[in-house]
Amino acid sequence: MGLKNSVPHHWAGRRAVGCKVQCNMVTLPASGFDGLDYRKNVAWTRLLKKKLLEELGESRLPYMTPADADFHQLWKTKYSKLVFRKSDTVPEELHQMVQESFLTLRKHDCFFQDLVRIKGKDFFTPVSRILIGNPGCTYKYLNTRLFTVPWPTEGYEIKYCNPQIHDACKALIKLNDYLHIEAVKALQGQNLLESKETEDNPVIDREQNFATSLREKGSVSQDQSSICVPEDDFTSLNSRTSYNVTLLNYMDPLQMLYLKQEPYFGMGNMAVSWHHDENLVERSTVAVYSYSCEGSPVEETYDQKLQGRDPAVWHVGLKVAWDIETPGLAIPLRQGDFYLMLDDLNMTHQHCVLAGFSPRFSSTHRVADCSRGTLEYIFGQCELALQNLQTDSNSGALSLKSLETAVVKQVEEIHNEVEFEWLRQFWFQGKRYLKCTDWWLKPMAKLEEYWRKMETMCFTRISVVAF
Fold first, then answer.
1. Which is nearest to 368 in space by CA: 188, 187, 247?
2. What is the pLDDT of residues 422-452, one digit of tens each?
């Protein structure tokens, strides 16, 4: 029986003496890899949130929208690493391709709610998602590993279930390339503008003016580059904007039975709570393209006398992390707008997504930290572990080359990682990826075979110790 068909029965409650503690479904082992660090971070975040809410009591913090007189000044002084671009700055052809790709993927049922664990309880995310990106890459959030539906990539044979899905993935890699170029420009522009900055120009105008002066899709000119970015720094900027995955999101707020209320500012319904994006390359830029399905009667409700944000319109909310002095921002997101979170903004600030009335798609492009999240990495780990396994040339019997504690510990840590971080995570999510492509089946079968060999090594060691 294949491993994928036996996960719930063969693995649930499995205990291998001397190997790992009993675990159920995708629960992490008691120690190892990044599970412990993740739980520490979650506990620390809960403590900070509890203290902040206790200090606030029944009051709410102030926040600003573009309708407020001091909005641009606040953006300039406290949120300058957020860059916003209106839809009319993006080529119309690209808009059309990307928006059609969203609708195509939804038509083929390619968006899924993820089962995640928050505060010790399991929840389905209100937002449905799909991860698209470089072949063999994965991305983790809320301790759940997602596997990319690979976009068309030279040197890889990728069979899509439908030509329309191929076209959708191709459109998204074009968006990815466009946002990479825009992010590099924005980082270079930020450095250049900081040296020439005047206090009178609001951030949104400065950014748009700079974008206008850089119509070419290539890098800034050599003269400008020498002013603001040395060559070594340019290489760093390029690597911190080379997106390897995009996490696509979809939600129809009117189909949700309940949406959580924003707790600090009173901003209204949240589609996604306050957070930092996880598992990214340090100081990398996050790019978000937004597409709300505008035009429904319920959305045209804006009232000039309305206090705060218009609840019919989707917004991105930002705040300085764990700060009660600085007002927050709520920025409306119209069809085809995109924004960039530059440099360390994702670390120093938090953001949330505030729901409007209409359905919305978004494509969130990230430089995922794949140091431990690619097939190349995990296959390398497996091959390292199997170096301790040898086969007798005459009898064919398997035995271990070394029983040294350090060697045995390393092998079993890799064994754990393959099982809990890869195989369980993949098969627990069922056959969702088969709606798009069967690309992952062969590498997961290979990984399953590695797991079986390490399982043999585990029981071989137990038999040696027992006798």
1. 247
2. 999 999 887 788 999 999 999 999 999 999 9
